[in-house]
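Example pasted here:
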Amino acid sequence: MNKIVKAILSLGYVGLTPKMPGTVGSFVTLIFLILLSLFFPLLPILRLGFLVVILVIGVWLSIYLVKKNIIGEYDKQWIIIDEFLGMIIAVGLAFILNLNWDWYFIAFILFRFFDILKPLGLSKINKINKPWAVVADDLGAGVYSLIIFIVIFYFV
């Protein structure tokens, strides 16, 4: 596997951290989105468009690179591009509405909860050894996180 592929799948080699690479990758994504929000103030529709483009390209690229470059078990611990994509969904509303950073952290905590515990069918997806399943469980964790985030944001 070449260095560019490994850099993409490991989120710039962040996935090679020896302890909790998924949490570290999620935190790096959190900081990335907060900084992006601070330094590139965009209209909400442009923020939404940005996230959709990142998700579409990221999901396609992740599945393609895993399929073409990984042998054996697909969901290796150092592959954390899926955490990046799940966090994009989880933090999406906070990013689109340009909320305070504390809302980003709430989304981060929710995402880690769902990503680690893998409830509501996510554990079944995680056990599937297919390239698409590498990202599917994290996208699901992102969706579950976003749903709970919306409930907290609008109703609590």
User: Anything to note?
Assistant: The chain has eight helices and no strands. The CA atoms of residues 14 and 25 lie 6 Å apart.
